């Protein structure tokens, strides 16, 4: 896919989570060996750190909905853990998913998030769990976690294999690494093509189940598994993502808000994949 970056359209929300689709992208190519789609001329690590550090945040409602979907989808993995002591979430946002992990029995919760605005939006008790920074392996002790999660974040990093290998070194034997990513082979993304929300300036990688398996096994994980799952969001948010002209989309959003229908939740499989692997124990 050819590069499509329009500097005049970039804003403080361009690197924010669950934003309005902009349909801009880097030059993307597909690896014929592992099936990953990736930007072959990505921004520098410094540019990415600055972009995410200054990004705005206005998606608490959607983050809460997403965390509930992730919590339901991850339970079969949690059932296979030898213990539920400590957990780390890379790209934690406001830390809402850490709340769910606490309810699942984890006693030591940690998150890392580069966006100042997202961390500031977290309630005080969650901010105590969150390190405001880009993820760096050396900030944590080896073999110190039972679970590491990285939801809708692997697409945003320069080197996903480096992240996965770091996770394998930070996990205790028997611990699990769990990701949620977009599947560019899913029916909805094939149908929408370049009008899919996954075509985005933030995305330096796009995965498939085959490329995820290559990633996890390359990082030393065993017992790999991946499957699509259902996300539940408000009709108002699904409308935000729809590839409609801005005028009709705005009018439809007004009708949904005025009638209250926009607050209704709808579960849809939009091609998101939850994948996991375990450190040999």
TrEMBL record:
UniProt-listed InterPro entries: SAM-dependent_MTases_sf
Keywords: Methyltransferase, Transferase
Record keyword Transferase present: yes
GO BP terms, alphabetized: methylation
GO terms of molecular function: methyltransferase activity
Keyword Repressor attributed: no
Record-linked Pfam families: Methyltransf_23
Name recorded for this polypeptide: Class I SAM-dependent methyltransferase
Organism: Ramlibacter humi
């Amino acid at each position: 896919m050819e590069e499509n970056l329009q500097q005049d359209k970039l804003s403080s929300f361009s690197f924010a989570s669950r934003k309005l689709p902009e349909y801009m992208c880097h030059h993307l190519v597909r690896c014929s060996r592992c099936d990953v789609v990736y930007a072959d001329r990505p921004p520098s690590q410094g540019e990415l750190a600055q972009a995410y550090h200054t990004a705005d945040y206005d998606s608490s409602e959607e983050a809460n909905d997403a965390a509930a979907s992730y919590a339901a989808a991850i339970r079969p993995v949690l059932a296979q853990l030898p213990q539920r002591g400590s957990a780390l979430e890379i790209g934690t946002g406001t830390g809402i998913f850490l709340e769910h992990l606490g309810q699942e029995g984890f006693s030591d919760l940690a998150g890392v998030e580069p966006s100042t605005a997202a961390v500031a939006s977290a309630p005080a008790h969650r901010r105590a769990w969150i390190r405001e920074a880009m993820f760096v392996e050396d900030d944590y002790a080896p073999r110190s976690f039972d679970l590491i999660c990285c939801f809708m974040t692997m697409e945003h990093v320069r080197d996903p294999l480096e992240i996965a290998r770091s996770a394998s070194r930070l996990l205790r034997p028997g611990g699990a690494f769990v990701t949620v990513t977009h599947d560019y082979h899913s029916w909805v993304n094939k149908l929408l093509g370049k009008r899919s929300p996954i075509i985005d300036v933030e995305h330096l990688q796009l995965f498939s189940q085959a490329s995820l398996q290559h990633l996890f096994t390359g990082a030393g994980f065993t017992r790999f598994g991946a499957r699509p799952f259902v996300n539940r969001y408000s009709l108002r948010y699904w409308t935000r993502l729809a590839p409609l002209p801005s005028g009709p989309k705005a009018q439809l959003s007004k009708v949904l808000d005025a009638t209250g229908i926009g607050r209704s939740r709808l579960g849809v499989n939009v091609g998101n994949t939850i994948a996991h692997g375990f450190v040999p124990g």
